[in-house]
Each structure stands twice: as C-alpha cells, then as structure tokens.
Amino acid sequence: MNDISQQIPLVRSTPEPPSDLVVSAHHVVKQYGDAANPVTALGGVSLGLKRGAFTAIMGPSGSGKSTLMHVMAGLDTVSSGEILLAGQRITGMNDTELTKLRRRQIGFIFQAFNLVPTLDVLGNVMLPFELDGRTPTAAEQGRIDTILATLGLANRLTHRPHELSGGQQQRVAIARALATSPDIVFADEPTGALDSRTSREVLGLLREAVNSSGQSIAMVTHDPVAASYADRILFLADGQIVLDSAAMSPEQVSRTMLNLEQVSA
To answer: Which one of 1.10.3210.10, 3.40.50.300, 3.30.1360.180, 2.40.50.140 gives the CATH number of domain 7-264?
Structure first.
C-alpha cells in the first residue's frame, strides 16, 4: 500500500483532555449482514472531536464516513465499542433516550434540507422546541431572532419551503440546527444540492458559527472546497481513519482524495 502521509503534508492531532471533547468514539466497530457474511463498515475507529471546532470527514465511496457520522449522532447503533457525547455514553441508550438526546443536544443539516413542507420558516426553525414540548426561554428566543436575522431569514418567516430557493431552504435548515444551541451540529453533504456560489455562502455561515459562537460542527462531504473550510479533516478508507490532518487547501484535499481512491482501487 502507498504511504499517503508521505505524499501530502500531514499534521496529526494531539490527544485532547476528555473535557475538551464534544464527541469521542472508542474502538467502534459497525458491521452489517449476518454473522456468517458480515460486512464491516467501521473497523475499530477511535477519535475525539474537540469542542468549538469544525471537522470535515472525507473518504471514497464506501469508506464508512456516513456510517461514522450516523453512529456518532445516535442515528445508528454500533456493533461494538463506545461513543460518548458531552460526557454521556450513548451506546446502550434506548430509543426514547436517544430521541431526547438528539432533540436537545444535537443539530442536523442534511443535503436534502429535510424541512417540513407544511410548516413555514418559523415553524421549521421552532420544530425542535415543539417536539420537545416546550417554548424557548427569553434568552433562547433572542438568540433565535439573531440567527434568523444573520441568515437573512427575518423577512421570510411566513414562507413555506416551496416558496424558497435551495440556498434559502438550507439557511432554514442551518437556523433549525443552531436554534437549540446544541453540543454539536452534524452536517451530511450540506452543500451537495447547491450551486457553487450558494455553497460558499452556506459554508461561510457554518464557519462563522464556529468562529463567533464556538459551535462544534462535524461535516461529511466529498467536496474538497467544502472540506477546506474545516479546522481538521479526517480521511477514511475501508472503515478506518487513515489520515488526520489540520486544515488543507482544496488542492491538497483533492490530491489526498485521489491518492486514497488509487490505493482503495
């Protein structure tokens, strides 16, 4: 196998104290299929995501990057290993506990936006509170108003998703993800359905959320430009983290991905 680390400058992260980590995974294995013919999506992955950082997760198709995000977010279970979110062990939680955790401590941004078509902008943004059976505090409402204004949505609150452009819909999804001030926001290909200009705007908004309010973001992407907005980039191949790099330019990301695809071929 080619040594990718010799081809691309690599800065490996140093271990962080547990208090500095928003999510940590310890020897996580995820297998699909039956015992006789298991398919390993993650093969003993261990990592920690630092609070207030923007992490990109990349890799060739089938590398396990989406599976890694799903198990860290409690959207899927692990076959073995342990995942901690904000100090809580989420592996082993039941469905009710996981639902509450996702609602209160995690934000999600998806490529397909996942907005409720019958709700207007404000209804979609307030949905996490509605599902949790509570109204925002005065401080939370003030923060939500600021987010809506910052994202240019203050004059669109009564519009429904079909009345918005793709970029505006993604802004609503970002506002909804940030509304509850979650411990971490998971973004799954958040710019995949957007044109290049709108993608840059959305990525800039995510970067600003990290810079201005210390939001923690983990983003799965195949786009080198998107990955270049991150503080740290994790590269997966065959269910393993094969590179753990500090920020890279889009050109460096592209070269790394090409090398990984050649090795995996």
So the answer is: 3.40.50.300
